[in-house]
Amino acid sequence: MDSYGVGKKKVRKAGKFLADGGTQQPRLDEALETVNLWRFIHIEVLREALDVLESACGDICSPILVGRIKRLDTIIDKLRADPKHNLDRMGDISGARLIVRDDEEVYRLSKAIEGFDGKNIRVINDYIKDPKENGYRGIHLSYKRNFDQLHLQNMLTEIQIRSHKQHLWATTVELFDTVSDVGLKRGRAPKDYDRYFRLISDLMTESTSDAEGLREELKVLEEKLHVFERLEATADSMYAMTDGAEGVCRANLCVIKAYFAYQTIELEVYDSDCANKAVRRYAELEEGDDAGIFLLARASSADDLKIAYPNFYVNSNEFCNWLGEQLS
After folding, report:
1. Which parts of the sequence belong to the RelA/SpoT domain (predicted)?
2. Gap between the Cα atoms of 174 and 172, Å rounded
């Protein structure tokens, strides 16, 4: 048991309680407190992972490099989606993301990162060679570290490396889920929507051989689903409040607050020595503010946050311009 009172058995028990829809008190408050402490511990794992990744990139390329702590609702959804998932073994509570120019840079960077610290970093999935069924592409690695002083071993950060185009695709899927609630990310969308976004992913692939046939099928589905129309209607519709944006840097933590009904997005920035305060604010918003969606993240600048998480900013102009060309 560690000094925070969070051992892996306790974390697993809390995750199971939340996944089962438990509501009785005081167990609910105890479970939420345990999850938030678990996320707090992962802030340090994420910080180290980002430092390692920055060093590993060296002169190879200049990726957008950001990190985030997983949202409570997505943690619970993931636990519910697969009973085999346990919270204490979930490998993406902390997640780092690198965005580069193209697939060639994805592979170069992946090789360099794995070679930089082969003992603690390894490739776990190559979704470029073997895309997910929904069309997701990218390379995922895992960074591992131990907290001996807390008696916690094998604490993980998921590392995603994506090309610019595939990042646009992945974040637009999340954005469309937000504005339409069709369930793409959770695998609950009608088949036509899955097919629509799979076609787009294939068209974005550099090795696409039947682009014309894919475009024709995409046009037929657009006539039925009106995805492009719905995305275009919401493109760049958020007003970003600038207070605090100048304080965004890799050392600090940012709480992104997106209020789609009011078309506003705000940032709260916390110094590195206020991590516990940032996590508690994150949890407070998740549990008590139904009007928005929230994310606890790290980045070098406010601009990098906007590039890395365009689904929060409803920043789909570039994707819509590309999709409009395919449909014309």
Report:
1. 67-184
2. 5
Name the strands in the sheet holding 139-147, side by side, starting at the edge strand that comes first in the sequence: 121-126, 139-147, 152-163, 94-100, 64-69, 293-298, 253-259, 264-270, 239-240
Q: Find the length of the chain.
A: 328
pTM of the model: 0.91
Secondary structure of 245-295 as H, E, C letters: HHHCCCCCEEEEEEECCCCEEEEEEECHHHHHHHHHHHHHHHHHCCCCEEE
CA dihedral 51, 247, 282, 6 (to 10 degrees): 40
**Helix (H/G/I), strand (E/B), else coil: 228:** helix
Q: How far is CA 40 from the centre of its chain?
A: 17
Q: Which domains does the chain have, with CATH numbers?
A: 8-164 (3.30.460.10)
